[in-house]
Amino acid sequence: MTRPAAKAGRVPAPGLRDGESRGGQGELGENPLERIGNTPLLRFTSLTEGRPRVEILGKAEWFNPGGSVKDRAAANIIAEARRAGRFGAGKILLDSTSGNTGIAYAMLGAAQRFPVTLCMPENVSIERKRIVEAYGANVIYSDPADGSDGAIRCARELYARNPQKYFYADQYSNDANWRAHYLTTANEIWQQTQGRISHFISMLGTSGTFMGTTRRLKELNPNIHCVSLQPDSPFHGIEGAKHMDAAIVPTIYDAQLADEDLKIATEDAYKMIKRLARTESVLVGISAAAAVVGCMQVAERLKRGQRATIVTILCDSGDKYLSERFWDE
Amino acid sequence: MLKIQIPTPLRQYAGKQAAVEVKGSTVAEALNSLVRLHPDLKRHLYTDDGKLRAFVNVYVNDEDIRYLEKEATQLKENDNISIVPSIAGGSREAGMNSRSARTLIRQMICPTVCCPACCCCQ
User: Fold this and answer.
1) Quick one: A221 and A312 in the same domain?
2) Alpha-carbon separation of residue B24 from A45, A303, B56, B90 (angstroms)
3) ipTM above 0.95, yes or no
4) pTM of the predicted model, to two decimals?
């Protein structure tokens, strides 16, 4: 069964400075910003049966108001741009996204009253399309055959045509992306595990989550083993994830930062979604399940009796993937 | 001849071609013909036991074969086959193609994409 590893201490939400966070757990939040971050850390006990010295823990990022880990990056990208004067009144926020960042931008746009234009591959799930449209974002669909790279090119072209009109958030090149995790995710994990974390494992998409969390965790304890995960093929079904060898590589990605890089098959992620739902009563999304597959691979290699606290990021819940075909197979 | 459109991430395994001409009277035969011509594609499209991977969506003239006869879907001369990853949901519901076309037209007419439904986009 899944149970919380520990309650989160309060780390200031992304985009808010120390002392600006007003909405504590159980209190009313005045706006979505205050409800971003400080997500629960879940322990998957069934995955480590027979190995009492090993724990696998996942940050349940669907507790963010936009339903995914991307709320953190989006909030910090907007906050840093506002502070630097790059995102003034009248500008439209523009970015490419495979869905979750778009939902976060659209939600924050609705809350803070700024317009949002998103470039998304046409084959993102219908659930995602409906959510961003519900928040009032303008969506340009790119060729589904080109994946997230097609959406990136679409946003770049739009921006090049009219740079005065847009604030191009460019999550793939924006240091505010990884800094969100440096400032929040890593510190939350450190507090929630009371410094026990021995391994950090995360899927690569923009790479912001892995870069920022790893940089901070390595400062807190250089011995933490940090493992990045990628799909095993450039053609895959792990939404939001990138196969770096065959994709437009995000500027913020530094391949040297990971102690190790593992490849995950989409089919293994599908199986893990079902396993976690039935044995841990947690319904995660595809990239979250892929991350847990990576945790299992690392756990299986541990020496007998070795103590380990393996932490990963559960990017979102399974709600947005219910139309997927694998449920019927 | 039939034409199979190759998605960008897979072109490196298909001689960098955007489309490959194949023969076959069904989708299964056409795909087999494709992987015979370009064997490096096989592991990206099929599981080890020879099934189409669950996230591989195949369309015949923009119709999802899941809603036709699946891999037994009959093909006619000049049919256009596309392979599209289901990066979630994946189902191109009715109308999406025309919507996409509208978006492209709107971008051409109104290069700044001024709004979802401005006067020049109607």
Assistant:
1) yes
2) 50, 52, 19, 25
3) no
4) 0.85
